[in-house]
Design brief:
Blueprint: E1 27-32, E2 48-57, E3 60-66, H1 73-76, H2 96-104, H3 108-120, H4 131-163, E4 166-171, E5 174-179, E6 188-192, E7 200-206, E8 212-217, E9 231-236, E10 239-244, E11 248-249, E12 253-256, E13 260-267, H5 273-278, H6 287-320, H7 338-352, H8 360-378, E14 392-393, E15 405-410, E16 417-428, E17 431-434, H9 465-472, H10 476-487, E18 492-497, E19 500-504, H11 508-519, E20 522-527, E21 531-536, E22 539-549, E23 557-563, E24 569-575, H12 577-581, H13 589-604, E25 608-617, H14 619-633, H15 639-650, E26 655-666, H16 670-679, E27 683-687, H17 692-701, E28 711-715, H18 722-738, E29 759-764, H19 765-771, H20 777-785, E30 789-793, H21 797-810, E31 814-819, H22 825-830, E32 833-837, H23 844-848, E33 851-853, H24 858-896, H25 909-919, H26 921-930, H27 936-941, H28 947-950, H29 957-982, H30 996-1018, H31 1024-1044, H32 1047-1052, H33 1062-1066, H34 1070-1097, H35 1101-1111, H36 1143-1149, E34 1164-1167
Parallel strand pairs: 15-27, 15-31, 27-30, 28-29, 29-30, 31-32, 32-33
Antiparallel strand pairs: 1-8, 2-3, 2-9, 4-5, 4-6, 6-13, 7-11, 7-13, 9-10, 12-34, 14-33, 16-17, 16-26, 18-19, 20-21, 21-22, 22-23, 23-24, 24-25, 25-26
Helix pairs in contact: 2-4, 3-4, 4-8, 4-25, 6-7, 8-24, 8-26, 10-11, 14-15, 16-24, 24-26, 24-29, 24-30, 26-31, 29-30, 29-34, 30-31, 30-34
């Protein structure tokens, strides 16, 4: 950093970004800015920065021009620049009530009951008091408002957390702490290591001696494509400097490995690229929600039909019977019209029968979902103690849909795997070294003691001490093996203190190999553009780096040419075994066969393998080759082809050293989880940005791919021939006997596509892009659904979302997407259900998800236990709810035929008001929250129990009709049995018992008892809460009824409680209790008989498992001794590294090197979440 006080002359240049396919989950971007005299002159000058930021809004192109002056708030405040405050909350204390009520009345049911309330205020048509509607309506509105207010409170809290973060801002020539919300456009901000970027900044300088910045970010597809677009111009001392996205630090990043940097605020707050791209998360609704809306419309139509029938009946009755009484009634002339009377009666019955449309249904459903969400949050078996991470239900609207999933779309790295590579085994000169297991999966060999090596990695583990002995015996080939691992790579070392080494590797594979060499005594210590320094068994050795023959997807190998201290020129190469074997000297034939057998063994265990070879080069030959290389490097056309030919030339006749085997450690329980979910008839598709070979390796490790499959179709062709390849697979499948399944292509259910043969489909991103075209996407989907396993590799985040959307559009199936990185966000948002893994890649996926936890294996419990229970509970709740309401309401319909269609009610008004909110609300909520058909152990042991949810078996239109029919029949029995019994009944003293109020008390009591017994029959899992709510509701009914007909209330409110002594007089008669008992038995016995016969003659799987559970209630779950899963396969992996082309040239150019002996770390940006619930990401 220069120290003069002269005016700053800033200029920007940037290094080419080497990113393969723009899909890596972690990639390094090298960003360059000049070091100037900026520091000492901060605050002493102004510069005008004109930015033309072109933003697309749909089809309209708007060009904005921003002209901030640096470090001049007074000037910049003249313009309407946005402040840096963000706001994701919906309400404030003044707007909450009007906005929330407006939103709630957009729901049809609430608006419907508001209209009913208005109708009840019209005396001519209302036979019910207004409070019968307003009490439940206000209760529903209040509960929903409390829930919305609570959600918004947490949004306010999250906003406040972000807005009050501290930044160092240059004010009046010195750095002062400011809250983020107070940062303004034009401010100069100093960022330090591990700090969040407060706003969109123009990078001015950094702590790196060469002004270099490492940007470590995750490339992701945002909801739109503007994050990677920025056009501007910097005006400074009459000079213009172009600005683009490579010179911007976007809000939401975190500075990593950087002591400090300075930036100029260009966009703040809601105008930042991030906030402009956050958008609104699509509101997700479950299939049951959609069905309920349809059913409510059907119920409303049914209500209209009943109203019309009763209105017509009233008109006919008035003409034939009622006119005889007109002379005795002091009615107005208008009311003496029979047609008008029928019209008014229609509205009266709409009011009376309004309870058939359940106002409390929606709020009851929300209460159930909230309870189910808490069960997920409280589940200790989904808590990951190593990271102190519990499971979290981030939404309360999708719980029952967890029990209906048919397709799971999963990321690989960090989701199925730990993204931690472990050097597991190796083969050197025909000898294998590494883990040896017994029949129970326990390691036979102890962990190697590396204490002889002071520079060892303390976390490294290896279980074969014979390899260390070979090193100590100085076996030449073993030494060359680890020397190759220490030299042939693009890793950057970082030594913060003596002996404390940190390797920055572009892929965890390379880091694992270099770490292995380090522990075996070949420590990679330092590098420059021309040299590599190793510590070989404690002795420093410097190699001259002559050339790096970089990796690409065609070569599938990487080589380096070095000169050792003895002056010998050596070529070291590592790559896919098939590629390396083709370039070996013929004298290696026997060793090649031996090593090939070892590779088969390694690959059979799902390990990622590489072959290693070396070659001595002649000095003169190498000089001649270098001339050709320099010449080819300057060619503009077909440069890659010329370089590839030269690489091929020098990489011939190599000598085989051996092979490595790296384990990309699966997360605990992944194979078992996938196997269990597959048994539940859930299709799992893996969508990953990794190479085809890597993805297939993991597929075999997870047992998604197996050698006994009929065929594994691999589509990795170029775009031009992708169509023919897909069509070829379709023809081949048909020729293999699948032609008879052609009708399955037109089916909407995945279950109708089941085939006996097992196929797997593996397709790369290039081919997938072509296959997703309109004329091929349906064929691709049909083929994929006929395969047992589908793996899409080298796919972009956008393609992930497109695959999910393809299934959503063409299949009536619930989809679930699970991932851990920002590149999974679009997939997570597109699927019906999004699950985020809180792993190694930040919290972007978690913030965009509906559910989150720390390990993939928890998905099994989320779906098969919580999801299945939620679906079972919700379906039972809905069936009972509709049954109960029809049984309660339609009694008025039958009574209408016996009261002259006069819109008189059977029950008193207080019973109508309290029935749904007091007498029957708690028992059904208890059942909906706590019920279990089978316990969690049996839910996991029998995955087939999950299938009814996938076919909507427990609640559908047919089930709805059955429930409503049962309710209609129950209502008729509730009315006609007491009616028939009271026709000729008398009291004990011989007086008439059949007054209208005694009749109402009898029907009301029968109804409450019948629905209570029915919910007892529907309950499979009894808790103390169920008992308390059911018996408590019955007790509450009798207590309230006797209280409302008591002398005390009558004396206080004679107009509201006029029926004094009705309950006491009616229920003191034995005949009334006999009628109630008869009504209850007749209503309940048909259902009891039906369920007994169904369970005995045609039991479901749930019935069988429940009986088994009851038989073994006192016996705990059987313990299973699970052995280590070891796969046998004849298949070997190809080049396993998630390697990217271009790093070799970058290293030899020296542009990513720091000054010698510099203790300053390399700056980088790491994508993180913000605290406001938005996914904060950047594409640079």
């Amino acid at each position: 950093m220069e120290g003069s006080s002269q005016s700053c002359t800033a200029f920007f240049f940037f290094l080419d970004l080497f990113i393969a396919h723009n899909i890596s989950e972690n990639c390094n971007i090298f960003w360059s800015g000049t070091v100037s005299t900026f520091l000492l002159t901060l605050g002493l000058f102004k510069h005008n920065c004109v930015i033309n930021d072109q933003i697309k809004h749909d089809s309209v192109r708007i060009v904005k021009q921003v002209k901030p002056f640096s470090n001049d708030r007074e000037f910049n405040e003249k313009f309407s620049y946005a402040d840096n405050r963000i706001k994701t909350s919906k309400y404030n204390i003044f707007t909450f009530l009007p906005i929330n009520l407006f939103e709630q009345f957009q729901r049809v049911a609430n608006a419907y009951f508001l209209v009913l309330l208005i109708l009840q205020l019209i005396p001519e048509i209302s036979s019910l008091s207004w409070f019968t509607t307003i009490v439940p309506l206000v209760l529903v509105l209040a509960i929903t408002a409390i829930k919305d207010a609570t959600d918004d409170f947490f949004r306010h809290k999250s906003d406040q957390q972000v807005n009050t973060r501290q930044s160092q801002v240059l004010i009046r020539g010195k750095l002062e702490n400011e809250k983020w919300m107070n940062v303004r456009v034009g401010d100069i901000i100093k960022l330090e290591n591990n700090q969040f970027v407060a706003a969109d900044l123009l990078l001015l300088s950094s702590s790196e001696p060469y002004g270099l910045c490492y940007i470590e970010t995750v490339i992701c597809e945002p909801p739109n494509n503007k994050l990677d677009r920025f056009i501007g111009t910097l005006y400074w001392r009459d000079n213009k400097y172009p600005l683009d996205n490579e010179k911007m630090l976007l809000r939401g990043c975190v500075l990593r490995n950087t002591e400090w940097c300075f930036g100029l605020v260009i966009f703040a707050g809601l105008q930042t690229k991030l906030m402009q791209n956050c958008g609104r998360t699509t509101f997700k609704r479950t299939s049951i929600d959609k069905l309920m809306n349809t059913l409510v419309l059907w119920i409303f139509a049914f209500l209209i039909c009943m109203g019309i029938i009763l209105a017509v009946g009233n008109t006919i009755w008035e003409v034939k019977v009622g006119r005889n009484f007109w002379a005795y009634l002091l009615w107005d002339e208008l009311l003496s019209n029979a047609v008008l009377s029928g019209f008014l009666t229609f509205w009266s019955y709409i009011i009376i029968l309004n309870t058939v449309v359940p106002i409390s249904l929606y709020v009851s459903v929300e209460v159930l979902r909230l309870g189910h969400s808490y069960f997920i949050n409280w589940d200790r078996r989904m808590y990951y103690s190593k990271k102190d991470t519990p499971a979290e239900a981030r939404t309360t609207t999708l719980n029952e849909e967890l029990g209906q999933v048919e397709f799971i779309f999963s990321d690989k790295t960090g989701t199925l795997t730990q993204n931690i590579m472990v050097f597991n085994k190796c083969s050197i000169n025909g000898n294998t070294y590494g883990d040896v297991y017994d029949e129970f999966g326990h390691k036979k060999t102890p962990c190697v003691d590396f204490s002889f090596n002071p520079l060892r990695d303390q976390k490294f583990r290896f279980h074969d001490s014979s390899l260390v002995e070979a090193i100590k015996l100085e076996e030449p080939l073993v030494q060359e093996f680890f020397r190759l691992l220490a030299l042939c790579h693009t890793v950057m070392p970082e030594e913060r203190s003596e002996g404390e080494l940190l390797y920055q590797a572009q892929s965890p594979d390379e880091g694992a190999l270099v770490t292995a060499a380090r522990n075996f005594g070949y420590v990679f210590r330092a590098r420059t553009p021309e040299t590599i320094t190793l510590y070989e068994m404690g002795q420093p050795v410097t190699y001259q780096l002559l050339a790096i023959l970089d990796f690409n997807n065609v070569r599938k190998r990487m080589s380096v040419v070095v000169r050792n201290p003895k002056g010998q020129i050596k070529l070291y190469s590592k790559g896919a075994d098939t590629i390396i074997f083709d370039r070996l000297d013929p004298s290696n034939e026997e060793l090649m066969y031996t090593t090939s057998e070892h590779l088969n063994e390694f690959a059979g265990e799902g390990l990622r393998t590489l072959a290693l070879a070396c070659k001595d080069l002649d000095e003169d030959m190498f000089k001649e080759w270098m001339k050709k290389l320099l010449s080819a490097s300057s060619i503009l056309e077909n440069r890659e082809e010329h370089l590839g030919a030269l690489y091929e030339e020098i990489e011939q006749g190599m000598m085989l050293l051996g092979a490595t085997a790296i384990e990309d450690k699966l997360q605990e329980g992944v194979p078992e989880t996938i196997a269990c979910l597959t048994l539940a008839n859930i299709k799992i598709w893996v969508l990953t940005g990794d190479k085809l070979e890597t993805a297939m390796n993991i597929g075999y490790s997870c047992n998604m791919l197996r050698d006994d499959m009929n065929k594994v179709f691999i589509i990795s062709a170029l775009l031009i021939i992708s169509k023919s390849h897909i069509l070829g697979i379709s023809s081949e499948k048909c020729s293999n006997g699948e032609s008879g399944k052609a009708q399955l292509y037109n089916s909407d259910s995945v279950f109708e596509e089941t085939i006996i043969a097992e196929y797997a489909l593996v397709i790369n991103g290039h081919s997938l892009a072509h296959a997703l075209e309109a004329d091929l996407e349906k064929l691709l989907l049909d083929i994929a659904c006929l395969c047992k396993t589908v793996i899409c590799c080298r796919v972009t985040p956008l393609q992930k979302a497109q695959v999910v959307d393809l299934v959503k559009r063409h299949k009536r199936a619930v989809t679930l997407a699970i991932g851990d990185g920002a590149n999974d966000v679009s997939m997570i948002k597109t699927a019906h259900i999004g699950v985020g893994i809180s792993g190694q890649e930040g919290m972007q996926a978690v913030l965009a998800s509906d559910y989150s936890f720390a390990q993939f294996r928890f998905l099994q419990r989320l779906l098969l236990v919580h999801g299945r229970w939620s679906y079972h509970r919700m379906c039972n709740f809905l069936c009972y709810f509709f049954y109960k309401n029809f049984a309660f309401t339609l009694v008025h319909f039958w009574f209408g035929f016996f009261c002259g269609f006069s819109a008189q009610t059977v029950y008193d008004q207080w019973f109508i008001t309290l029935f749904n909110i007091v007498y029957t609300s708690l028992p059904v909520l208890a059942m909906g929250i706590f019920d279990q058909d089978v316990n969690e152990q049996y839910s996991l042991r029998y995955p087939n129990l999950y299938k009814p949810g996938q076919t909507n078996l427990l609640f559908n239109k047919r089930k709805f009709f059955i429930c409503t029919l049962q309710g209609i029949c129950t209502s008729s029995l509730l009315f006609f049995i007491p009616y028939g019994a009271f026709l000729s009944s008398v009291r004990d003293d011989g007086s008439n018992i059949s007054d209208q109020q005694a009749f109402a008390v009898t029907i009301a009591t029968s109804l409450v008892i019948v629905v209570s017994v029915q919910i007892g029959l529907d309950t499979n899992y009894w808790t103390a809460v169920n008992h308390f709510f059911i018996w408590g509701s019955l007790a509450m009914y009798f207590a309230i009824m006797f209280a409302m007909t008591s002398d005390g209330l009558f004396s206080i409110f004679p107009n509201q409680f006029p029926f004094i002594g009705t309950a006491r007089n009616s229920l003191s008669q034995k005949s009334v209790w006999l009628v109630i008992l008869l009504t209850t038995v007749v209503c309940i016995m048909p259902m009891v008989v039906y369920r007994f016969l169904r369970t005995d003659l045609r039991p479901t799987l749930s019935d069988k498992v429940r009986l088994m559970q009851q038989a073994t209630r006192r016996q705990g779950p059987q313990e299973q001794n699970l052995k280590r899963v070891r796969r046998t396969s004849s298949r070997r992996s190809a080049y396993a590294f998630a390697h990217q082309q271009g790093y070799g040239e970058l290293i030899t150019s020296g542009k990513n090197m720091r000054v010698a002996n510099s203790a300053q770390s390399v700056p980088s940006l790491d994508m993180k979440e913000n605290g406001s619930g938005c996914t904060e990401s950047a594409t640079l």
